[in-house]
């Protein structure tokens, strides 16, 4: 039961009210005194007969103007309002005491850590939020609001740390604790970017914390504005086309068309007409067709998966690169070419050249400025930031509130081998969000084919000797490492071998700057 007592400002009036409660053996749960002249009491429900005697006695106290029941205490309402706000926030929020121990946390914290709130209470916040010394800040002479970058469940956040103070009897304030609010760094960055500038589609869209991927982006930025062809190597799903678009958007051709042709998706005769077009009257067509090379005039033409292009079409493309002009099918008049070619491949073109499946002259024409996009397995530090970005993108498309990754989900994502790379990660998260009921993505929500993290290099039914397979593995390893360690001394140091031993192996396998893309 709760009472609201309106009264005059008289010394001792609250004590007179409490004395009446004592005479009725009422256990007081709480009392609040409002500055506007009100006393609020919270005590257990009492029998109606006792209540009939209690109310007149309180009303007869000098200075009491009115007594009535109320549904809630002011402090209860404020606490419940704040609690409701905190719980509905999608970002983690902690309340800590002046020693850094947890007093309160919201659902974003408990679901992310996969722990019950009761198990978190009175534990140190530093166990969960890394990268900031909360004890030192709390023990400082005058803690002030502070923002800093922290880690929570291995994910990057910006922490707003706000001190909580209360007034003491000497008109001074004492520190009672703090509220810590975590905001996703990826989401903040994207919001600021959207607010400040339009989407350029350039390198700013490429999310990375990995040194390997950052090196690739740095190289791409340096060659983006050159007019020579670019050849981008990388496994399926690594983002080769996205890197190609970024190169185009960062070049002087950015205001001109960016067109693409998937060389492996269409038959050879269709690919030829798509590239070169045809004159009127050809194929019984009354109108001429303008090919992609003409449509992309002044801009960039992306030839996706160039290794799948037939040798006949390779020869025609080579003539375009050599002569700077081409002819539409069925036409004798040459057309000048002002196009920057960017090609991608997930295959080893050098090996295909050795096998006679790709024209050597075309390979050297295209492989002027080469880039290697690392697999997701080689840039595991990017998995969580990429996941956060995809969750925001997918949530906007699905019209739902962005979900959080649980700790078990983060661990699973970081240890899965990702044979399909970034595209596989993006698709897996879209499926999870599409079927998700709550606001937390767990390991069980990510449906992926079973895949062992360890790589199998040799088929169990292989034909050949052990020495042959070892040499094959050794050659593949050296070819993979050579672009990052192009000198024999660097490569020898990386592999723990002598300079002479590495030089001999490179010579044996024909690995050098002419045969391997740097």
TrEMBL record:
* Domain Sigma-54 factor interaction stretches: 206-434
Where would I find the ACT domain in this sequence?
Answer: 2-72
Cellular localization per UniProt: Cytoplasm
InterPro entries the record matches: AAA+_ATPase, AAA_lid_NorR, ACT-like_dom_sf, ACT_dom, Homeodomain-like_sf, HTH_TyrR, P-loop_NTPase, PAS
Q: Which Pfam families match?
A: AAA_lid_14, ACT, HTH_50, Sigma54_activat
Single GO MF descriptor: DNA binding
- Which cellular component appears as one GO term in the record? cytoplasm
Keywords attached to this Swiss-Prot or TrEMBL record, sorted alphabetically, are: Activator, Aromatic hydrocarbons catabolism, ATP-binding, Cytoplasm, DNA-binding, Nucleotide-binding, Repressor, Transcription, Transcription regulation
PAS domain: which residues? 78-121
Name its GO BP terms in alphabetical order. Answer: regulation of DNA-templated transcription
Please give the chief subcellular localization of this protein: cytoplasm
The protein's matches in NCBIfam families, at most eight in alphabetical order, are given as:
HTH_TypR, PRK10820.1
In terms of PANTHER family, this protein maps to: HTH-TYPE TRANSCRIPTIONAL REGULATORY PROTEIN TYRR, TRANSCRIPTIONAL REGULATORY PROTEIN
What is the protein name stated in its UniProt record?
HTH-type transcriptional regulatory protein TyrR
Q: What is the lineage of its organism?
A: Bacteria, Pseudomonadati, Pseudomonadota, Gammaproteobacteria, Alteromonadales
